[in-house]
Every structure is written in C-alpha cells, then in structure tokens.
Design brief:
Elements: H1 2-20, H2 29-49, H3 59-73, H4 76-95, H5 98-113
Length: about 120
C-alpha cells in the first residue's frame, strides 16, 4: 500500500497532461454551414414577414429578434424545425475543440452580418 502512495505523485501530472490535450474533433465548416444557413434563412423569413429590420449589430441581437417572431407564429412545426436546427448546432459545438469553436463563432458572426436573402 505504501508503494502505491509513493507512485501517486508521479502519476498525477500524467493525468493532467492526458486530460488537457486538445484533440481535433474532425468537425469542419461543411458540417455546420448547411444547418446554419437554413436557420438563418428561417430567421430572416420571420423577421421580414413581421416587418422587422433584418440588420443587427451582432448574431445575438439578430437571433433574439428572430426568436421573438418565431414564437409569435405559434406554429408547432416551425418551432420544432427551429429547435432541431439549434440542437444540431449545439451537438456539433459540444464536440468541437476550442480552435474549431473560434472558427465556428467567427463564421456565424460573418453570416449574421450579411443581408438576408428572402
């Protein structure tokens, strides 16, 4: 037992090295861009139909305004589709490493700075 206790301080740093290594998830923009484009198109459609602006300073503001309009629609199918897109993106983002998340966030902001195509 005493031998195990002596080894523990030697093994502990290796556990940290294993847990802190960043691995490439293999998720590329081609995996999330189609979903992101569909989501953006849906949000644009609802904002335009409500007569709301389709230009906002950032993705968060745009998505907040669009979400309010989608909720006002009260169509279960639309809400289910909207939720499905967000779930797909959340699943992908969960599996991304930090570098991949940075690319994803940057591309998301770029998309939401563009004009809506309706």
């Amino acid at each position: 037992m005493l031998a195990y206790l002596r080894l523990w301080p030697l093994l502990l740093p290796s556990f940290f090295l294993i847990s802190c290594t960043s691995t490439d998830s293999g998720i590329t923009p081609e995996d999330y861009q189609p979903v992101l484009l569909k989501l953006h198109a849906m949000e644009c459609t609802h904002l335009a139909a409500a007569g709301k602006p389709t230009r906002y300073p950032d993705a968060y503001s745009f998505r907040s305004a669009a979400f309010q309009e989608i909720l006002r629609d009260l169509n279960r199918n639309v809400l289910a589709e909207y939720e499905s897109y967000y779930q797909q993106l959340a699943d992908l983002e969960f599996r991304m490493n930090e570098t991949e998340k940075e690319v994803y966030r940057h591309q998301t902001e770029e998309l939401y700075q563009q004009d809506c195509q309706h």
